[in-house]
Amino acid sequence: MVTGRTTIKLCLFALTSDPAVAQDFQWEQRANMPAGRWGASTFVINGLAYVVAGRSGSTDQTDMWAYNAGTDSWSAKAPIPVGRRLATVFAMNGKGYVGCGLTSSSTRLSDLWEYDPITDEWTQRADFPGQARYGTWHFAINGLAYVGSGNMGTGSGPFLDDAYIYDPTTDTWTNGFPIPDLARNGTSSFVINGKGYVVGGREQSLAFVPDVWRFDPQTNSWSSLADFPGTPRSSPLAFVYYNDAVVGCGRDGSENYYDVWSYTPSLDQWGAVPDYPGMSSLAGTSFSIGNRAFGGLGWVLSDNSSHFDLWELVKPTNTGTSEEQSTLPVVRLYPVPADPGDGLLITTLMTGPINAELINSLGQNVMSWTFVSTYTMATEGLAPGPYVIRWQQGGMSGQLRCVIR
Question: For 348-366, how does the pLDDT look when each residue is reduced to its tens digit (9 = 90+)?
């Protein structure tokens, strides 16, 4: 776990040649899923996202729906034979896999089912060899699936710290490589550039943790990375947006969260993204189709309701091309969030003076300044809460989000 002061890259929210039309990262609503739920399983095959099972009301569903981002539409597919929530899920070699999970009768599962999108059929495969469980971390890399941790009991555990590897070509499981830390449940997991990442979750002590781990299948080893910067939580949304990860929403023992953060693996740094605008909080669904990223559904514990709204995270640019394709200057800010005694360091690759202003949550201008290359802003005397730093250089402009704790 990383301790002390964390260096964080804050994503560049907006760049434009015309300040009057500056745009941030933004969430745009897409077609609702036909039925609300939380704890569903999601995998992507050949440009379609499949959302399987999950819980609605007091029932764990068996139905499956495919989302087509090109037409912004849903279509019904073959239901999984056994309904469940908080399952293990991955996709490999053109097939989707769903296993483990929790049923309406509070039964923990250890089965594994394979979905073939060509025949629209499910086939049972070799059972997961460990104890029946739900809430695992899971990802697939180079034709193998890696699964570990999870919960084999009630909400308070016991949690697990083991790991297993599944090979679909032989339909066999072997012992894997556990995260070298405490047992945990309700993590987020994703894959970027051939490495698996696991974020946070809840330890056996019932503490929610912010730590982040990366698994390298070439060396079968784990590395500890920069902590998740938001409040530690369980079962957040997590997806890949270009070569960054996006993690947000979720819940700890008492509060729903809607803040969202991006992670850049090449820099091991986190930055803020606009808050999720939908209803999802706990155990929503999230997926990426190419360079498009989506999140939605989920459960709000305070009103015991499950939701069916779906949102896409988008980032327009001044050239009309994607962030990956465009060659735009970079402005960075750290640390985020900041403590009252920290100095906020702003750096840029641009040359020439930049005009900047600090705006509080009421839209008021707190201070203005001009800098070249770098600037350290004192935070003493600033009230805790969210702020926006707006900047402009010639015809270029943008804004950065920061938080004073």
Answer: 777 788 899 988 877 788 8
Q: Dihedral of CA 52/67/271/193: which sign?
A: positive
Topology of the domain comprising 331-404: Immunoglobulin-like (2.60.40)
The single-letter code of the amino acid at 405 is R
Verify cis geometry, omega within 30 degrees of 0, for the bond prior to 34. Answer: no
Q: Which of 96, 118, 102 is nearest to 52 (CA)?
A: 96
Amino acid at 103: T
CATH code of 26-314, in short, is 2.120.10.80
**pTM, 2 dp:** 0.74
Long-range (24+ apart) CB contacts under 8 A made by 255-264 are 255/231, 256/281, 256/282, 256/300, 256/301, 256/302, 257/230, 257/231, 257/233, 257/281, 259/230, 259/231, 260/313, 261/228, 261/229, 261/230, 262/11, 263/197, 263/212, 264/9
* Integer Cα distance of 34 and 76 in angstroms: 9
Helix (H, G, I), strand (E, B) or coil at 19: helix
Residue-range domain boundaries for the chain = 26-314, 331-404
- How far apart CA 308 and CA 261 sit, in angstroms, is 22
Residue 73, strand partner residues: 68
List, for residues 288-330, the tens digit of each pLDDT value.
Answer: 998 899 999 988 765 566 678 999 998 754 333 333 333 334 5
